[in-house]
Every structure is written in structure tokens, then in C-alpha cells.
Amino acid sequence: MRKQFFNWMYFYLIVYLIFLYLPLFLLPIFAFNDSVIIAFPIKGFTMKWFTMLPSQDAMISAATNTIIIAVCTSILSTLLGMCAARAWSRYSFPGKSGIIGFIMVPLVLPEIIVAVSLLVVLINLGVSLNLWTIILGHVLICTPFCTAILTSAFLNLDKNLEEASLDLGESKFSTFRLVTLPLVYPGIIASLIIAFMISMDEFIIAFFLTGTEPTLPVYLYSLLRFPQKLPIVMSLGTILLGLSLILVSTAEYFRRRGVAKSGINDFGGTL
Description:
mainly alpha
């Protein structure tokens, strides 16, 4: 009976992995296909769709906007997440659970609700839509992720090290700078990378809050209306897929370094 159960579990796992990753395998296949028609059989191998990317001025502009937004979002979200994580892990104050729960609310809210709500508020305030309005929305949804990552890093930090530094005459700021930050920096790097990835890939909030400067996901969505542009979409998607894998691997590397420094058991998972 137990063997049969595990057989079904393995079968379910294989089906799940195929369903999840098959589209990712098809993406680079059609990106190198020498045809504008996205269908089998493959006509031939070509790199021309990739060589056409640098000549797409609109794409370069959208990529620049995306990088600016992602960098600003990752820095601001990590700073806010660090403050929340520090308060969560080290201090007790009235309403602590409620405040932390309120910070985590965007994790469970549909992005369409967040996007529409922000749009209505910004329009009523007379704020023009630009890159900073997108950054505002992205910081809102990235801060809970950064808070969760950094809270784990702060909780794994030995309090005795900070107390020893204070006993030796260091100020609270010096203790934080010289003792705390070096020990939690793997978590900070992981937080920056995760926030960067979320912002770079996010579409719904960017679609609602963008003005005349679209991000890369919004630009890709606009190309789907033109069948002859689909190979360019596939090639750009392949590049983004490769970049995402590199960023995830980097975040996992720093997470493992943080776990090794803290001396706790590693149960896996970037978050």
C-alpha cells in the first residue's frame, strides 16, 4: 500500500513538472526557429531574432525603464523590509502582531485590486503616471517578501554578539554597522535579488500605473497583437528566462551562505 502511494506521488510529481516547465523548454526552441510561425515542425536554426533585438528602440527604452524601476524597488523594499524585520525580531511593542500582519497583507491581495486602488488614489491626488508611480506599486508588493527574508536572517542572528559589542563600549549604530550587518548581509543580498526579480517580471501594476514609459513586460504584451513580432517576443523571453535563472541561483547561493554562518539546519527554499 505504501509503495503504491509513493508510485502515485512520483507520477503526480512528473506530471506536475511537465505541466510547469514544458512551456519554458518550448520558449528557447521557438526563439531559435527560422520562421515567424510558432508551430511544429521547426523550420530551421537561426540567431536572427536575437540580432534584431538591439535595433528595437522601443524595446531598449522599455528595458531601461524596467532596470531603473527594479533597482529602485529592490533598494527601497529592502530598506523598508530591514526596518520591519529588525522591529519584528528584536523589539516588543503594542500592536506588534497587527502591524506586521498589515505589512504582509499585499502577499494575499490580488494584484489587480492593488493596481486599481493605487490608480484611483493617484488620479484623485492629481499625480501624473510615470516611473515613480510604478516604483510605488512595486515597493508595496515587494516589501512583504523582503520582510520575510530579512526576518529569517535577523532571527538566526545570535543576540549575544550584539550584547557583547555593546558591553565593549560600542554604540548601537556601530554595533549594527560592525556586527549585525556583516552577519545578515547574505539575507540583504537575497532580499535585493528577489525584489529585483519580482519588479522586473511584474505586469499588472506596471500596466495600470505606467504613463508614456512602458516597462518590458508591458512592451512584450503590446507585441502579442502582431504575429510577425512573436519570434522577437520568444527571443526576448529566452533572455529574460536565462537572467531569472541566474538571479535565482545567486539568491540561493547567498541564502545558503547565511544559513551556514548561522549554523542552523538548511531546509531549502529562498524564502
